[in-house]
Amino acid sequence: MSYRNPTAVLPTHEVTNMPPHMGDQDLWSSDLALREGIAREGAAWAEPQLADFGQVAGREEVLELANQANRFDPELKPFDRYGMRINQVSFHPAYHALQDLAVAHGLPNFAWNNGGAGAHVAHAALNYMLNQIEGGVLCPMAMTYAAIPTLKASPEIAKEWLPKLLSTTYDKRDIPVGEKTSAQMGMFMTEKQGGSDVRANSTRAVRDGEGYRLTGHKFFCSAPMSDAFLTLAYAEEGLSCFLVPRFQPDGQRNGLFLQRLKDKLGNKSNASSEMELQNTWGLLVGPEGKGIKTIIEMVQGTRFYCAFGSSALMRQGLVQALHHTAHRSAFQKLLIDQPLMQNVLADLALESEAATTLSLRLGRAIDEGEAGNQEAAALARIGTAIGKYWICKRAPNHTYEAMECHGGPGYVEESILPRLYREAPVNSIWEGSGNVICLDVLRALQRDAEAGPAFLREVESARGGNGHLDKALDDLKEALADHSDIELRARRLTEQMALVWQAALLVKSAPAAVSDAFCASRLGAAWSGSYGTLPRGADCNAIVQRARGLG
Ligand SMILES: Cc1cc2nc3c(=O)[nH]c(=O)nc-3n(C[C@H](O)[C@H](O)[C@H](O)COP(=O)(O)OP(=O)(O)OC[C@H]3O[C@@H](n4cnc5c(N)ncnc54)[C@H](O)[C@@H]3O)c2cc1C
């Protein structure tokens, strides 16, 4: 927060060499990688909305709401005062204010309400901007966005639920969906005995008239105040997908019993609960026995969120580091002008730009895939896993380095850095943890005949633009052709694919200072992965100026 004329001259000393408060941020104008990506990936038509939201979401008062929503944890209210079961979670008003802001700007449904070229690109950009300020509120946005295509495949369910999910009016009331102006969706798959391996689920579903009755438990249920959840349970034909609303058709509360809320490392504003399902009413979504296939479409959507969500965390960490070092001196020189700090900042900037660029490119693949382009759909399929793995893997260390650029004050809760840092690992863990995602890349390569060729055509289109990239392309093709110990090598292979893809995108679209340094470091011989290790010859100053929006 900034304060009017804080007193710098104190009885014992004068406060000097401290940066000014950042005040309002313009999350759109200053982010050249974002703006250029939006134009390049087909979403130029959305620029007015994005520019507007960049100013709105970057306001200091939104940051303050985010701070409050994370400082005052959600509280479980299983019973009312008379001992009757309500299974509610009570949130700080700041959380609801953030939800209001997000839903009003279409964060859960912009892509579906607009459609066409650039819709998912613009959708990602809107969410990316708010995610820089607050990650927890994005969880229900992600699950609602991701559930919509799954529900579209079930016309009866879609008729009741889609108008509410596509609404841009936030309605926090815990009442049946028919009485609400809008609704949100959750997705509960993880059980105690298995999260990655959902076939280990023990929840059972038995037919009950038009619906089913589910009995069992779910171990991680985020945004449990959502109006309905997609979940998995074993029916006669096998593991099946069900829509479970908070209220049954007769208006009675459904059998969803919140056991407790998780005490999490970060993502504090968002409640994550444990739940028991007792004779819980649900509707089958998709065919019985095809639950994984049905829900996997949804998982692709939430994994897309993880990729651009982690890009957002990196961008905001970088913005903070640039601001601090531009105003703080050590040894008679601004930090931002010191060669070694420039190397760190430039390296952070490269990572941030590469992540944002890849996320937006992925958005275009999703857009084009939806329009019926098979090659784009195949790229989106494998690219989502590649992007989710690598971008999320790079974010925790990135937020930590951005914190370290601040010295001690970065470690203190008054800055946003600790919150970004605590938020960073979750995108890598949920929606398929790192190993599982790399195995999914292998699955895409093995089972989708189009995925590998689509990916290679994409990256080969940059051949000739950079010597390091050409060599890395050859190495990658060799690695892909070698099927020995493929599972053991899945992380390395996915990392190679991600780096080559990011490099190819930057070679084709970014200024030479950015693409040259990215290729020389990430694809050069001796990359340690640590930030601040760009090789001699990298134009750190140009990269830093661009990251500040001045390039
Ligand atoms: C804050 C938070 C909120 C969450 N919210 C939800 C939610 O709303 N809904 C929901 O369904 N889930 C949710 N989850 C759960 C999350 O999706 C799971 O924790 C995750 O999928 C991993 O499952 P698991 O915890 O059972 O770990 P496990 O499946 O036991 O995996 C443990 C580790 O083993 C690795 N591993 C698994 N299989 C293999 C293999 N074959 N080879 C090599 N390594 C392997 C994994 O990558 C992981 O690193 C949430 C998690 C968190 C942290």
Distance between the termini: 28 Å
**What is the N-to-C order of secondary-structure elements (H for helix, E for strand)?**
HHHEEHHHHHEEEEEEEHEEHHHHHHHHHH
Segments where pLDDT lies below 50 for 5+ residues? none
Biggest pleated-sheet summary = 7 strands, mixed
Assign the structural class, choosing from mainly alpha, mainly beta, alpha/beta, alpha+beta, or little secondary structure: alpha+beta
> What coarse outline follows from CA principal-axis ratios?
globular
* Discrete helix count: 19
State the oligomer.
Answer: single chain
CATH architecture of the largest domain: Up-down Bundle
According to CATH, the homologous superfamily of the largest domain is Butyryl-CoA Dehydrogenase, subunit A, domain 3
CATH topology of the largest domain: Butyryl-CoA Dehydrogenase, subunit A, domain 3
Q: Tally the structural domains.
A: 3
In this entry the ligands are:
flavin-adenine dinucleotide
Strand content: 5-15%
Indicate the percent of residues in helices.
40-55%
Integer-rounded radius of gyration: 24 Å
Mean pLDDT: 97
Please write the CATH class name of the largest domain. Answer: Mainly Alpha
Count every beta strand, where a strand is a DSSP E run of 2 or more residues: 11
